[in-house]
Design a protein that fits this description.
Shape: globular
Order of helices and strands: HHEEHEEEEEEEEEHEHEEHEEEH
Distance between the termini: 72 Å
Bound molecules: 2,5-anhydro-1,6-di-O-phosphono-D-glucitol, manganese (II) ion
Strand order of the largest sheet: 4-3-5-6-7-8-9-10
Number of domains: 2
Radius of gyration: 20 Å
Number of helices: 7
Helix content: 25-40%
CATH class of the largest domain: Alpha Beta
Structural class: alpha+beta
CATH topology of the largest domain: Fructose-1,6-Bisphosphatase, Chain A, domain 1
Mean pLDDT: 94
CATH superfamily of the largest domain: Fructose-1,6-Bisphosphatase, subunit A, domain 1
Low-confidence stretches: 329-335
Length: 335
């Protein structure tokens, strides 16, 4: 089995980028250890403080963030970083070439109930004249990512990574502390019978999403002509890993619960990196109306509606939304 480093040396164009990914893995292996130790490493429970998202941070959110920040800040290749747990971007090394954006711990509501969590990362190039203290140099579309990946802290610790030449899976052998290639060129099945969405938000979705789910739930007797199964782990990394493994569609659409925060997931360090992995594996990723990675970001923490996974199923969801915008002949007569 091939180790991560020689695989990257072969597939990754730039040795500095290989070093950044290597550095990230150092931090993630430390996080993996602490997750495995659980109560014995003091990582459980709340940190009793809120982050910029207005969410109560878990201790492991803060610990993971600080570990990754420490490793990246010490790397000459890293010019700056942005994190779900940091209000502002953090300048690292002025001569660095890369900007690293990350969700240090995704699915953290699961950590206290012993369910899979993970780290998501996205890597952008920064222009030499960019000043990494300014958010503007980070606001690049998902198409500009030079690498993206996640580390899944589950029964096994897995890395799924793309540097633009396919999506590949690695497993950590804890006996030697090394990641080994276990799945080269992952391909997502184009069709599926499995969907993932938080159904408790149904009444807050817009009408096309409600119509799509209604039709889905009619199964083989409805317009989809097949019976679907549902999953919801409340950990995006685990959902996307399942979809990369056996297909499916993951949805966190806009909802009207908090009009000033219509989406739950963040574009820059959840939507975009996961979209790169999914697209590189033959899947699709949309906001219901636009292709995710084409969005020009305006804020480092901006939220986005997320539909990603098996290509044909994502196309179906988008079609329900396009039909919604087509002028219908049945427009009510102006009175
Ligand atoms: P995070 O823990 O980084 O805030 O991310 C949690 C996200 C995502 O991982 C998951 O799919 C979603 O929140 C779950 O949301 P609900 O708890 O509303 O179902
Ligand atoms: Mn997250
Ligand atoms: Mn998080």
């Amino acid at each position: 089995m091939q180790r991560l480093r020689p695989f990257l040396d072969k597939h990754c164009p730039n040795p500095d980028l290989v070093s950044v990914i290597d550095g990230l893995m150092l931090a993630c292996k430390d996080i993996a250890n602490r997750v495995q130790l659980g109560i014995f490493s003091g990582v459980l429970g709340s940190a009793e403080q809120e982050n910029i998202q207005g969410e109560c941070q878990k201790k492991l959110d803060v610990i993971s963030n600080d570990l990754i920040k420490m490793v990246l800040a010490g790397m000459p290749q890293v010019k700056g970083l942005a994190s779900e747990e940091e209000s502002n971007v953090v300048a690292c090394n002025p001569d660095g070439q890369y900007l690293v954006l990350f969700d240090p711990l995704d699915g953290s509501s699961n950590i206290d109930v012993n369910v899979t969590v993970g780290t998501i990362f996205s890597i952008l190039e920064s222009a030499p004249e960019d000043d990494a203290t300014y958010e503007s140099s980070f606001l690049q579309s998902g198409r500009k990512q030079v690498a993206a990946g996640y580390v899944l802290y589950g029964p096994s610790t897995l890395l799924v990574l793309s540097t633009g030449n396919g999506t590949h899976g690695f497993a950590l052998d804890p006996r030697v502390g090394e990641f080994f290639l276990v799945r080269e060129n992952i391909q997502i099945p184009t069709t599926t019978k499995e969907f993932a969405i938080n159904m408790s938000n149904y009444r807050f979705w817009d009408q096309p999403m409600q119509r799509y789910i209604d039709d889905l739930l009619q199964g083989e007797v409805g317009p989809m002509g097949k019976r679907y199964n549902m999953r919801w782990i409340a950990s995006m990394v685990a959902e996307i890993h399942r979809i990369l493994t056996r297909g499916g569609v993951f949805m966190y659409p806009y909802d009207s619960r908090e009009p000033q925060k219509p989406g739950k997931l963040r574009l820059m360090y959840e939507g975009n990196p996961m979209s790169m992995l999914v697209e590189q594996a033959g899947g699709k990723s949309s906001t219901c109306r636009d292709t995710m990675m084409d969005i020009q970001p305006h804020d480092i923490h901006q939220r986005v509606s997320v539909i990603m996974g098996s290509a044909d199923e994502v196309d179906t969801v988008v079609r329900y939304h396009q039909e919604d915008t087509k002028p219908t002949s049945k427009k009510p007569k102006a009175d």
